[in-house]
Write a structure and sequence with these properties.
The structure holds two protein chains of two kinds. By secondary structure, chain A is an all-alpha fold. Chain A has one domain. Chain A has seven helices and no strands. Chain A starts with a helix and ends with a helix. Chain B folds into two domains: about 170 residues, Stage V sporulation protein AD (Peroxisomal Thiolase, Chain A, domain 1, 3-Layer(aba) Sandwich); about 150 residues, Stage V sporulation protein AD (Peroxisomal Thiolase, Chain A, domain 1), CATH 3.40.47.40. A seven-stranded mixed sheet of chain B has the order 1-2-10-15-14-11-12, with helices on both faces. Chain B is globular, with a radius of gyration of 18 Å. Classes of the chains: A mainly alpha, B alpha/beta.
């Protein structure tokens, strides 16, 4: 064929439909913001009813969001919500919970050790590895600055 | 005897017949426009099995049994099985047929497998090596998704160019003698890679292979697109079909009048499958359910079926390599003129 690799790359780029970036951003903003607002609401409820410090209440609110996200994953509805919410469910802690619950469910069929146990970190693993690495690096930088 | 002509085409002088076909479709596929044509529609995608893989092999087996039943044959009447699927080591096919004592060829051509198997079966049938051959392929959205992409319940996002792996299986019995439709010719594709790396745009990756194979067939047989009632590509989807038309247009070949694509027929717009369907079972089930009866009745006289496959693995994609693709063509006709 007469078409070259570069020609073809151009043609594909030109004629492939693009993701609706702005529309997706708006969805993500509304859903992601909504989830965070809901988290605040839970935290305030906890502060009011259990009379505990705000710092602790925020921790409990995160746990509640994680629990809800995992429950929705198990009930086969999280992915349908995520389809509408775009990155809105991905960025808050709900996305992290879903990224661990979904492989746990999926790879049960290969057993508890080689399946569920080994595959549970298949999506979240890199986030943990590089998140921890970044925090170590950040800590080191702060330590060095404090020496002088 | 099969006769080679031109660069890459085989002509069948005593064309083998496709005496029957069987199809099984998943729930979502069964809610689409082809619902009235499938032999079996699954009530739920796991078919009561403990794993998706087991469901897929059962689907492939059921499609084969359906084809045999329609032809009034049993597995003992089959000389060779040519079967394949998308799972690693083609397990759906080998597990589906392990209980039958039939000579077996496991094929991998990704979504092009059914055209590959029809071509090989026709060569075997016409050469006298076989009387009856069984061709079967399958794909299952859930088993493919966990192998190639993400867990099912993961809330990830797909791009508009991505294709939906069909949950479907199709089977055909190719016989050395019988009634219409006939396998008249086949063009075996060569591997084609125009540098596309995006696993979510496989239509664009596969289109050059389809264009090349169609071009080769037309040149080898000295025919033109208008000589055929339908040029049916495997599963290029929206983007790939557009690319195919564009690429052929550059070569001075216009197939826009009679081209259609299995990936565009299987679902309708409202089913949210982005650029269309794909999977080894997609083109097989569309051909077996929707096209075969039309070829049998003569509503379609002469068609070119070009199934395309993307031959990457998850490993090569992660290593940043582009996607090598293939397309095989079989010419199917109602009459023998």
């Amino acid at each position: 064929m007469s078409v070259t690799v570069n020609d073809y790359a151009e043609l594909v780029k030109e004629r492939s439909p693009k993701s609706a970036v702005w529309k997706n951003c708006v969805s993500a903003y509304i859903w992601g913001g909504g989830i965070c607002l809901f988290g605040e609401f839970i935290a305030n409820l906890i502060i009011r009813f259990f009379k505990i410090e705000k710092k602790e209440a925020l921790g409990f609110a995160s746990i509640a969001l994680i629990f809800i996200a995992i429950a929705l994953t198990g009930l086969n509805v999280f992915d349908s919500i995520a389809k509408k919410a775009k990155a809105g469910t991905l960025v808050p802690i709900t996305g992290f919970a879903n990224s661990m619950a979904s492989p746990a469910l999926e790879f049960r069929s290969e057993g508890f050790v080689a399946g569920l146990g080994a595959k549970i970190f298949v999506i979240a693993g890199p986030v943990i590895v590089y998140g921890l690495s970044a925090s170590v690096l950040y800590g080191l930088i702060i330590y060095i600055f404090k020496l002088f | 005897m099969p006769k080679r002509t031109g660069k890459k085409t085989i002509l069948f002088e005593k064309p083998p017949s496709i005496i029957s076909s069987g199809s099984v479709a998943g729930k979502k596929e069964g809610e689409g426009p082809l619902a009235p044509y499938f032999d079996t529609i699954m009530k739920e995608s796991r078919m009561g099995q403990p794993s998706w893989e087991k469901a897929e092999r059962l689907m492939q087996k059921n499609s084969a049994q359906k084809a045999l039943e329609k032809a009034g044959l049993a597995f003992s009447d089959i000389d060779y099985i040519f079967a394949g699927d998308l799972l690693n080591q083609c397990v759906s096919s080998s597990y589906a047929f392990r209980e039958y004592d039939v000579s077996f060829f496991g094929l991998y051509g990704a979504c092009s497998t059914i055209a590959e198997s029809l071509c090989l079966a026709a060569v075997f049938a016409e050469s006298g090596a076989a009387k009856n051959c069984l061709c079967a392929t399958s794909s299952h959205f859930c088993s493919a998704e966990r192998q190639f992409r993400f867990p099912l319940e993961y809330g990830g996002q797909l791009t508009p160019t991505s294709q939906w792996t069909a949950t479907a299986a199709g089977a055909f019995i190719v016989s050395s003698s019988g009634a219409a439709p006939f396998v008249r010719a086949a063009t075996v594709g060569a591997i084609e890679d125009l540098g596309i790396k995006d696993i979510n745009n496989m239509g664009a990756a596969m289109a050059p292979a389809a264009a090349k194979t169609i071009g080769n067939f037309l040149a080898d047989t000295k025919t033109k697109p208008s000589d055929y009632d339908l040029i049916l590509s495997g599963d290029l989807g929206k983007v790939g079909s557009d690319m195919l038309l564009q690429l052929l247009k550059r070569e001075g070949v216009d197939i826009s009048q009679n081209h259609n694509d299995c990936g565009l027929i299987l679902f309708d717009e409202s089913q949210e499958v982005n650029a269309g369907a794909s999977g080894a079972g997609c083109s097989a089930a569309v051909l077996a359910s929707y096209i075969m009866p039309k070829l049998k009745s003569g509503e379609l006289g002469d068609i070119l079926f070009v199934a395309t496959g993307a031959l990457m693995s998850t490993l090569t994609v992660q290593q940043g390599e582009s996607i090598p693709c293939i397309a095989h063509l079989v010419r199917l006709s109602h009459g023998l003129l």
